Amino acid sequence: MINLQVNNSSFSTDDLLLKDSHIADDSALFTYQSVDKQFRIESAWQLCNQTGIWSRKDRISNAGSRDIYLSRYLERFVSTPGNYEMFSQEAAGVMKIREYGNRYITE
After folding, report:
1. Which of 7, 31, 39, 41 is disulfide-compatible with 20, CB 3.0–4.6 A?
2. For residues 102 and 52, what is the distance between their CA atoms, to the nearest angstrom?
């Protein structure tokens, strides 16, 4: 489940369309697009076969014609009963995402 805030509007999983997915034994890539086509999210998952640890990197891209401001991005997981070890990183603040040539930069 995803919950984010862009340009003072809240979006959840229901507001995102799964546009593409590629799943392999040790990796997965999911591409979502907002219903209003303002932004796109790529979520890349990779399994380290030596440790058995899955890592995930998400990328949000401005798919519209105006700057977007990302002020919240929260991913929630549902898991079966068991013992889990988890590591998480957090960033604070508001990011402005704008197009610069063929790449996106954050401020």
Report:
1. 31
2. 36
